[in-house]
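Dear colleague,

Thank you for sharing your sequence with our group. We've completed the structure prediction you requested, and as agreed, I am returning the results in plain text so they can be pasted directly into your records. Please verify that the sequence below matches your submission; if there's any discrepancy, let me know and we will rerun it promptly.
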Amino acid sequence: MPRKELSFFIASNYSTDSLRFSLPLWVARLFGGVACLLALLVVASLVMTLAGTYRLGKLSYLERRNRQLEGEFAKVKALRQRLVEVEEQSRKMATMLGVDKSPAPVNWDSSPLDSQSLPEWLKGKVWGTQVVPRMVPVEEYAVSQRAKDPHEAIDLAAADGAPVRATADGVVEQRGDDRQYGRFLLLKHGQGYESYYGHLQDWNVDKGDTVQVGATIGWVGTTGKSTAPHLHFEIRKDGQRIDPATVLKF
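Please find the predicted structure tokens below.
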């Protein structure tokens, strides 16, 4: 039986000579199989390389994201610790003020919108750090009457509806309507101080609310016995009215 071979002829364009060589068919098949196997290996290697590159990129992203989450978690942990400190400070402040229960959260919605006009010492302060009256309750005003017996208060003439701000951190002790001073608020602060605000047009705090120095608690009005918009402002020390000018500069 003749042997099966695979013959190859190589001829030149410029010569009649040619080169011929033959391979047994089984050898040619073997070479073909090896070539196909090598091609499959190359394709598989390429696929694995691309998959490995993708996984390395994803791993790098996950590592960056993990570092970001660790940083955010550290910030949350620090904020939680700060909140614990503030709550402890509030508890001590409540004890000092004689409040039976822990004060309600500060009504941040009552904070004045024009915060840029507030003094620098007021910005960034937490509730309970400013317990002594330090701030005149209205901004644009004229002193219409100073403290003198029996009027142990100061009257501040201001525009109708002008914001009235808390003069110190404290708790709303009373809120009501008086025949003489109309709508009023009484705030209890630290170290025996209280502040009283009369002739208000309206309030935006309730009894028991905590208020922060500079927060808007009401608006100038003419309620009660008043002929023009103004604020009747008192400061009390240990239950006794004192001249506000001895504590604040008007």
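Summary note from our side: The CA atoms of residues 48 and 175 lie 76 Å apart.

Kind regards,
the structure core
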